[in-house]
Amino acid sequence: MLYNFLINTFAGAALSGSAASATTVNSDAAANSAATASTALQETIDVLPSTEAAAETLTKISGTEVDPSALEKFMTELPDKALNFGVKVLIALVFLLICWKLSNLIVKALRKSMEKAKSDESIIHFVCKFIEVGLKFLSIVLVAASLGFNSASIVALLGSAGVAIGLAVQGTLSNLAGGVMILLVKPFKLGDYIIEDSHGHEGTVKEISLFTTKLITPDNRVIVIPNGDLSNTSLTNSTGNKVRLLQVFVGVPYSESTNKVRSVLEGAMNSSKYALKDREMLVVVNDFKDSYIEMQLRCWVKSYEFLASKWDLNERVKNALDEAGIEIPFNQVDVHMK
């Protein structure tokens, strides 16, 4: 009996405490709900006039009625939308940076493989530049598509812009086409000494780019020639072959024996270190001028030593003629008076 009494007593006390706690919790919840409702009502009272005023102002400016509720909804959703768009832009920029880094790595790997294959340097430069530009352009299109732009519209827009730009820069495009033709036909390569016939430019080919070709002259000047001009004109490649014919012309008096002169000039030519001894060397009477006999020296030299061999042979010819007492005549006129 005592056990039952104690149980009933404790159970009643517990139920009373629970009821009191429940009553207290319900009272606090009701108070909090009332405070929240009051705050929301106050915010509504504060916001609605400003929203209606903004809607009225926009209506006056645009001439079209602006719904205050739609404006309020837009302003409410604006922070979230701006945050989402900012995150998308940040991810797109990171993706673009990664794509550009990958394109650089691909171009470097391609260059190394082409260099191992011993491809021409001008072709390596052109192919690597073309692929680099193409990959970076593709990455820009992908990033624009990821931001919500229609890729088909982007391609169409770029195509239209390309047509307009192409009409405006026809000369530049002709230079690009000329650069492609030079790389395909290969009328010259890096290190060749060429002479452009239309303007007389000449020098050693230093660089062949997409639009221009750079020449280095013997006096170390840089000449930049558009590829369109080079592909549409005749040119002379002086180092297209390993050896080149050197011709030197010199005048001697009519009073001198041609056999003697030939012997002196052959000795001067044989003494030159540049003349190839396994090739034909000739000294001939080339022409009869008004005041002298024109002798011609012909020998073969290495193409890259052409200028040095010409200067050397000219000096040896002059010294040999002086030692032999043979004077190089100059133009003169004899006047006879009666």
UniProtKB/TrEMBL annotation:
Signal peptide location: 1-21
Keywords recorded for this protein, A-Z: Cell membrane, Membrane, Signal, Transmembrane, Transmembrane helix
SUPFAM superfamilies in the cross-refs: Mechanosensitive channel protein MscS (YggB), C-terminal domain, Mechanosensitive channel protein MscS (YggB), transmembrane region, Sm-like ribonucleoproteins
Residue spans crossing the bilayer: 82-102, 123-148, 154-185
A GO MF label: mechanosensitive monoatomic ion channel activity
Membrane topology annotation: Multi-pass membrane protein
Subcellular localization: Cell membrane
Domain Mechanosensitive ion channel MscS: 172-239
Occurrences of domain Mechanosensitive ion channel MscS C-terminal (ranges): 250-328
One GO CC term on file: plasma membrane
Domain Mechanosensitive ion channel transmembrane helices 2/3: start-end pairs: 133-170
PANTHER family reported in the protein's UniProt record: SMALL-CONDUCTANCE MECHANOSENSITIVE CHANNEL
Annotated family: Belongs to the MscS (TC 1.A.23) family.
Protein name according to UniProt: Mechanosensitive ion channel family protein
